[in-house]
Automatic annotation (TrEMBL):
Protein name from the UniProt record: Transposase
Organism: Microseira wollei NIES-4236
Organism classification: Bacteria, Bacillati, Cyanobacteriota, Cyanophyceae, Oscillatoriophycideae
Length: 35
């Protein structure tokens, strides 16, 4: 596996992780303010 492909894969995973994290935080905030 070339370094370029590995770097792209890692960037993609990092982006997905950040997006999932934002979704989880958003859900937590929604629930907190709903109470």
């Amino acid at each position: 596996m070339s370094e370029g492909v590995k770097g792209m894969q890692w960037e993609y995973n990092k982006t997905n992780f950040d997006r999932n994290l934002a979704v989880v935080i958003g859900i937590n905030l929604e629930q907190r303010y709903r109470w």
